[in-house]
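Fold this complex.
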Amino acid sequence: MTENNTNENWEPKIVAFVCNWCTYAGADLAGISRIQYPPNVRLIRLPCSGRVNPFYVVKALQEGADGVLVSGCHPGECHYLTGNLSARRKFAMLKRFLSYIGIEPDRTMFTWVSASEGEKFANVIKGVTERVKALGPAEKLIKAL
Amino acid sequence: MENIEKQLREEARKLLSEKKVDALVGYEQGTLPYQAAPCIITEPEEADRLVWNPFCSVNLAKYVHDLIFQHRESQTRTKPEDRTKKVVGVIARGCTTRSIVIHLQERQYERNEVVIVGVPCTGYIAKRKLFRALEGAEPLACAVEGDSLKVETAQGSKSILIRDILSDSCLTCRYNNPVISDINVGEPAPPMNPDGEYNDVDAFENLPTDERWAYFTKEMDKCIRCYACRNTCPSCYCKVCFVEQSQPRWVGVSVDESDTQVFQIMRIFHQAGRCVDCGSCVEVCPMGVDLRKFLKKLDKDGFDLFEHRAGESLEDPPPLGAFSTYDKEDFIFEP
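Structure:
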């Protein structure tokens, strides 16, 4: 990440943890619909947003991600019925806690994108990328060694 | 105070001689005059070792869990029908009973495996505050006299108001009387000041982001990763803690400061909705890391978002183990 800081054409690296059933399919739809969105995001497919351990988010930030996005099915539409509802509780606390210790709130984003929302997926990625770009390269919690 | 101590010994003797408990966890006089150490007694004659004074600090629920699990472990090679249960008695103040409630909610042991001797609590002395009040002098003998502590040092004797050196957790304690108990000793203690509970957190929240990060890193720089906070925490009972897991290796062990920060973030976050604010981690920390400021935030959010106070009652499920369709969603990003 350090080489990134000096680069004038710095582009943020964003890690997105997405659920297999909604957001990943939404990303697929954005792809086959040829909707353009910034290439800064790296998708990691998981079975459910409830599968996302809060540690994944912290670890991604430590390993050099400039931003982390977690996205799953809309509440009530979870493939596993309630996975995203328990995820919502976890992330409500995680986001508040990370902001509290001084990590910018815009570095950790949570959203819902369903399989039919290709357009929304592209907009989410645009929005997140813009916000992380505005913050600049991540400097906190980064592992230097 | 002495009266409670007498009653405690009496109850302990009775429980052990009637074989209602196999072991009883309490406090005994430590090796230093300003210390009360946890002790485990198994014979009625040992009941006189028990003490109850403002130096009884660490949360004993941890020892209850350890004893029960050690016993279970020892029976892995016993035939299932021959296995016995071990009943552990514990001398418990408000925070200890709340930790036991958390253990019971998380199905660590059955209610009939623990006998709770509830004691009203007026707070314990934070050793760091005592040392600060003594300005570096070594206490040679301590005695409680009413609401003050008489300390003998090499430089002479000094009387300190106990209220001034109580732990921060105790000053704003909401549950200084046991929330569950089998036997109660003493009269219910007068309430502390729970209204000021989140003053520290509120003040910290209003600081600019970078100042908060600077404070967090400053505090975590002190951490030497001795894991004393984890070892004393009743809510940290995993058989294999994530810090020691190597497949996958969750958190690095290098000298890089981010490794320590990540360890602390995750240990603290594991207490989301489970921290009873007993202050044991702060009390045992050899480096004086201000852990409470961060743990208290989770406590505040738990109440703010889910109206849950850790270990308040057996019926109230832990917040991250439950959900509702009506949970707040203001943090969700909408483009």
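Chain B has eleven helices and eight strands.
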